[in-house]
Amino acid sequence: RLSSGRRRHREPAAEGSPAGDRGSMRCQQVSVLYFARSAELAGLRCETLSVPRQLTSLQLWEEIVKVHPRLAVIRDQVVFAVRQEYVLLGDQLLVLQPGDEVAIIPPISGG
Amino acid sequence: MDESEDVPKDFIKLKTEKLSVDEVSELVVSPYCGAVSLFIGTTRNNFEGKKVIHLEYEAYTSMAETEIKKICRDVRKKWPSVKHIAVHHRLGVVPITEASVIIAVSSPHRAESLEAVMYCINTLKASVPIWKKEIYEDEYSWKENKECFWANSEK
C-alpha cells in the first residue's frame, strides 16, 4: 500500500546560519516523486526531503537511498527528472531551490 | 480561402477512460489536408508464453505532457506542412485489445503525416515518462521500452 509521507532527513550542517546564507551545506526542502518500481520499493509516491542545496546527482541518489535502502537494487536502471529535465546519476552538479520537484524515473514503457 | 483561420494545433490528453479513434481523428481533420494518418497501440494477450490479463499504466503526468509537446514541436520542425497533431494516451487499467495510445496527424499530402506519426510513437517510447505494468495470472512485470536509453535490458 502506497502513501504520501513527510520526512525530515537531517539537520542543516551550519549552526545559527544568518538569513540569506547561501552556503552549499545549507539544506533545502525538495519534493521527491517515486514512480513504477521505485514507488513499490520506497513504499510511497511522494514526500518532502531535506537535502543539500548543491550536490551531484549521484550524491542526491545516495541521500535518497539512505532514507529508502530498498531502492539500491535499481540504481543502474534509473535516471532523475529534476524540474522536469532528465538527469543521469553521476557528476552533474545540481543547484536545488526550495520546493523543487525531483522524480525517480525507472525505465519507461509508454505507448 | 483563408488557411490562416486553420491554425495548427496540438491535442494532448492523458486519461483513464477508453480512447476513441473517431474522436482523435476528428480532432486533426482539416479542409486544407488530404491526409490523416493514425497509429493505434493496442494490448496483446501474451508475452513470452505467459497470458496477459490486462495492462496498467501510470505517468508523471505534468512532465509527460511537456515531453509530448516537445515531440509535437519537433514534428513541426521536421515536417513543416503538418497541420494538426493529436496524442491520446490511456492511464490506469487497459483491457486486452483496447487501445493504450492513439496518435493522429494531418497534412496536405500523405508522406508527411505518415512519417510524422511514426516519429511520434517512436519518440514517445524513448522519452515520455509513462510506465506500463503487464499483469499475468500469477505475477506482474514492469515493462521497459528498448528505446529507453537508461534501461538495462542485458542484465
UniProtKB/TrEMBL annotation, chain A:
Compositionally biased region (Basic residues): 1-10
Annotated segments matching region Disordered: 1-24
Pfam families reported for this sequence: ThiS (PF02597)
Key word Repressor present: no
GO biological process terms on file: Mo-molybdopterin cofactor biosynthetic process
Source species, domain of life: Eukaryota
InterPro entries linked: Beta-grasp_dom_sf (IPR012675), MOCS2A (IPR044672), MOCS2A_euk (IPR028887), Mopterin_synth/thiamin_S_b (IPR016155), ThiS/MoaD-like (IPR003749)
GO MF entry, a single one: nucleotide binding
Gene Ontology cellular component terms for the protein in this record: molybdopterin adenylyltransferase complex
Pathway the protein takes part in: Cofactor biosynthesis; molybdopterin biosynthesis
Keywords: Cytoplasm, Molybdenum cofactor biosynthesis, Nucleotide-binding, Phosphoprotein
Keyword Phosphoprotein: yes
NCBIfam families: moaD
Name the record gives this protein: MOC2A synthase
Taxon lineage: Eukaryota, Metazoa, Chordata, Craniata, Vertebrata
From TrEMBL, chain B:
Pfam families hit by this protein: MoaE (PF02391)
A single cellular component GO annotation: molybdopterin synthase complex
Entry-linked Gene3D superfamilies: Molybdopterin biosynthesis MoaE subunit (3.90.1170.40)
Molecular-function GO term, any one: molybdopterin synthase activity
SUPFAM superfamilies recorded: Molybdopterin synthase subunit MoaE
UniProt-listed GO biological process terms: Mo-molybdopterin cofactor biosynthetic process
Superkingdom: Eukaryota
UniProt KW rRNA-binding keyword: no
Keywords: Cytoplasm, Molybdenum cofactor biosynthesis, Transferase
Protein name as annotated: MOC2B synthase
Species of origin: Cochlearius cochlearius (Boat-billed heron)
Taxonomic lineage: Eukaryota, Metazoa, Chordata, Craniata, Vertebrata
